Amino acid sequence: MRASLLFALLVAAPLGAQTAGSTPVSAATSADMARALRVLRANPVMDGHNDLPWRIREDSAHPRDVEWYDLRTRTPGMTDLARLKQGHVGAQFWSVYLPGEPSDATYAPNGTVSSRPGYARVQLEQIDIARRIVARYPELQWAPTAAGARAAMKRGKVASLLGMEGGHAIENSLEALRQYYDLGARYMTLTHNVTLDWADAALDTAKHGGLTPFGREVVREMNRLGMLVDLSHVSPGTMSAALDVAEAPVIFSHSAARALVDHPRNVPDSILARVPRNGGVVMVPFVTAFVSKAVKADDDSLEAQAKAARQRAGGDTPAARAEVARWRAAHPRPRATVAEVADHIEHVRRIAGVDHVGIGSDFDGIPENVVGLEDVSTFPTLFAELAHRGWSDADLAKLASGNVLRVLAEAERVAARLKKTRGPSQATIEKLDGRPVAPRAAQ
Q1: Catalytic (active site) residue 104
Q2: Is position 393 annotated as part of the catalytic site?
Q3: Phi first, then psi: what are they for 257, rounded to 5°?
Q4: What is the pTM of this model?
Q5: 192 is catalytic
Q6: 309 in a domain, yes or no?
Q7: Could you give the CA distance from residue 258 to residue 57 in angstroms, rounded to a whole number?
Q8: How many independent structural domains does the chain possess?
Q9: 4-13, 258-267, 312-321, 345-354: least confident range
Q10: Given 192, 344, 347, 388, which residue is catalytic?
């Protein structure tokens, strides 16, 4: 999840100036916090999604400079070593995100590639940044297997794995998919915000009814490799099609419950009800518009105001922005709460079961925070809230890391079995979908 252009450009006042009143952090007591901390000391958090590599890439003063963005200090973002320790983070999927929006300037009319970087190049750069982050700090440990992650956590390290955010990076190539796995990617989100040649995205037009035949082959090949199939960002049709095909547990690396907030990035109950049979896990995020009805409604109103302002202003962009800023000043922005995040976790538990829920914060990829969940140090606040609601120690441990470690281990077992009977897939999108497609490249 990246900050929306609308939010970044049109919200003129600082967030605090837009917020009405104060928002309580949690109903939890000191006893609840003490119990949460006891559980997390024994069962640290395994977070499904953190965008630190992209934050470093996009740093305005020192882009891509892993050495300058020193995690031993208090960083300008949401993640550093001290706060990871304070938050009892024991394992992290570092997101190796890249934008999926097409660029007409990337491919020249004769089919040659321009100097603008393409998907594969940017994906490799992001993997390089993430691997350099992990290599730089003894506190982090490269651990691309479930057993390795457990061992690292026992040693007090932050087990580090990679998650690719968007299947556009494979450029319609199973060979590329296999190379990304060899470089350490342990999940791939089938789409980001753009519908691909083989899979429909949640925030774009559905063109395939879910997955094409090549898209289903992507899922099968991921299962054979042991790469987790991530269904965040995809359409419900793609979720359903992937669950039909998957031979191993899937994940939703950062998605909430659509029954509570009707956002297209959230998971419908019909899909949640299918997750137990698959064995997967839904990792609830701290994205304010996903977890709070009030924030989602405010986003909708802001978008409508911006659209109307642009229409009235014609081509006068400063005038449109000024009009939206006046509206914003008169309509204080609501804040999402820890209780709302807990509501989504409990809803997933109610529909899918306690064995199928986890945490996917989206820290360093979100433009604003849930009150009380400002950075990686704050995970205990959420666990204290759930302890206050009566969650047992055993169930809190499953939420923290037990469920996703089980899913990763099962995906590895399935892959070992499948490799005994299946070699690398030789399928192409041209053969399966009947249409040659030139890859698109990232902006």
Answers
A1: no
A2: no
A3: -100, 120
A4: 0.92
A5: yes
A6: no
A7: 32
A8: 1
A9: 4-13
A10: 192
